[in-house]
Write a structure and sequence with these properties.
Two copies of one chain form a homodimer.
Chain A: H1 10-29, H2 36-47, E1 52-53, H3 54-61, H4 65-77, E2 81-85, E3 93-97, H5 99-119, H6 125-143
Antiparallel strand pairs in A: 1-3, 2-3
Helix pairs in contact in A: 1-5, 2-4, 2-5, 3-4
The first copy, chain A, binds a DNA duplex through residues 19, 23, 35, 37, 53-55, 63-70, 86, 89-93, 149.
Chain lengths: 149, 149
DNA sequence: TATTGTTATACTCTATAACTATA
DNA sequence: TATAGTTATAGAGTATAACAATA
């Protein structure tokens, strides 16, 4: 079986597409003082009623826990999240969105979504859904495996 | 209309999937002394009968020309490509794969492809094709636009 | 005047190791 | 002994600006 040329290779196309959409998202988020990684932490924290531990954040995002520390530091400095002691485990700390964090997230989420959507404009709504579902299955099957060390 | 939670967001899923496949590709390429960016330059050079100018490489790959210089430097140091003067334009230099470059690329391409494919194993062949076609349309529509400066 | 390649610089992202306090 | 968080460091990727040679 013949291998595809670079420009028809899924890995290459994933990298290019991800770069394009991440750049658009970062541009859209710049007005809120956020970048995609900080935004993703804030977004997860805001959607979890009681917040998440940093370990949970690292697991979901596929990041090393040491990176999460820095991202939460920045968000906390900006007053968008805070660290609460975790009842029942004095090692852990729950990352919770502040009211200001939720307020900022409201606009940021909309802007980021629109920015990404504009880069996907070549695809119909139906096709964007298909893309999302295919990617979600890849992440769920492969993503959770090699997170730890 | 309601916005999706982070884990159902196409931008987030693209970033995660791209990270997963790029990591797999880098692991697969490590034995050849290559990383994905160098590999992509080598791959394009090898597939173009007379090579490509660095400007063309930058355009196709969505990179800044200054980044291409460094990538070609590394490949040239490793003896995988060489810079030929471009007949008809003394400013430009054509990047051409050496025999050794083509030989290395043969194995590297196979390994990288298998590594990425393994991360996509949750999708059928048919679905992987669909994914590739959707991504290709996004790159073609949005990718060529804001490359220059 | 515009384009090709180049050098330089700064910032972000990624990967790893080692340490502390708790469990 | 394992786990949650933290600190530190190095390497890779990304983004810009400026310059020489040539068109």
């Amino acid at each position: 079986m013949d291998l595809p040329a670079l420009t028809d290779d899924v890995g290459y196309l994933l990298s290019r597409t991800s770069g394009i959409t991440a750049r658009a998202a970062n541009t859209a988020l710049a007005g809120y003082g956020l970048r995609v990684r900080q935004y993703s932490v804030l977004s997860l924290a805001a959607d979890a009623p009681d917040g998440l531990s940093q370990r949970e954040l690292a697991g979901v995002l596929g990041l090393d826990p040491s990176q999460v520390v820095l991202l939460v530091d920045e968000l906390a400095d900006a007053g968008l999240v805070l660290r609460r002691p975790c009842p029942g485990d004095r090692r852990a700390r729950l990352v919770v969105a502040t009211d200001e964090g939720r307020r900022v997230l409201g606009g940021a989420r909309r802007q980021a979504h629109d920015g990404v959507r504009h880069q996907l404009r070549a695809l119909s709504d139906r096709e964007q859904e298909t893309l999302r579902d295919l990617l979600a299955r890849v992440v769920r099957s492969a993503g959770g495996v090699s997170v730890g060390r």
